[in-house]
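Q: Can I borrow your eye for a moment on a structure tokenisation matter? Would you mind producing a protein record, from residues through to fold? Write it directly below this note and I will take it from there.
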Amino acid sequence: MDLHAKLQLGGTVPSWLCGGKVTKDLGEHFEVGFNALHHRLGYDDFPYAKQWVEKNRPVGVSHFLGWETLTHAKNPHYAGMGGSATPDFDSDGVGDIFSAATGTLNIWNGKGDNTFGPATAVDSDWAGFTRPIAGDFNGDGISDLMAVKKDSNTLHVWNGRGANNFTGAIELGPGWNPYGSTLMSLGDVNEDGKTDIGAVHSETGTLYVWNGKGGNQFGPADAIGSGWTGFTRPIAGDFNGDGIGDLMAVKKDTNTLHVWNGRGANNFTGAIELGPGWEPYGSTLMSLGDVNKDGKTDIGAVHSESGTLYVWNGKGGNKFGPATAISSGWTSRF
């Protein structure tokens, strides 16, 4: 790969290669292989390939290449979140809804037009775990689940296999008692292409980030900032469209929605107020990924009184469309 890129950039063709004469025709597909090897598998020993890819962005978008670029390229022109926090358990590129509040893990697969299929019951052994989160924690491109076991305060992961299937629970480590109720999947907040997680300490109100290393591994806790007890459980997504994970929560005393845009290196902007009127939605606020297939991150919530599920479609730049009522009967699910 690196030799091909070097020649494409003007390097001398060695005499032993095709008699010293080659056709220089690296196409858009070259970036797909580079993304897989570099950003997903961590190889970093082909500088000419990296130079060629970065020099020739943005690539054209076909049905296949556009998807690959959005999820793995870290391409500033077409990038989504480098490490995926999107709940997409059937790997169709559309965000799904999931819940284990009844003790059974259920998944509602998104259809791409703000609608969802019927509940798929996956596993009935979830009563002993905190509310699960979704992300690609092992780096295989398929959404996984993560939660804290209540009786032992140990963190567990269930790696996705596609088609709404998962491995058995894999124990990652103890000591998660202060974080279980606010555990969140952040996407990529340090721009290394891996999915990071975060949580707010229940006593101190300090937000912590654990940077993903791939393979279900995470770095040590990084304290980001205090003062989070005044907000509902944060959620994460790329709400301004810059490819870096952002945070979102409702301020409890004013019921206003706020966003903190990621800057990379585990840093965030100050709170940006988006608007009032979120009291009925704060406790069930969720980041859905893209559920209307426009490439923007959407959010959802269940109205606390009516039990109606609403979706707000993202417009980029921290903007969202009006609330779209999806269906009723969701109170017991969240």
Remarks:
- DSSP finds four helices and 25 strands in the chain.
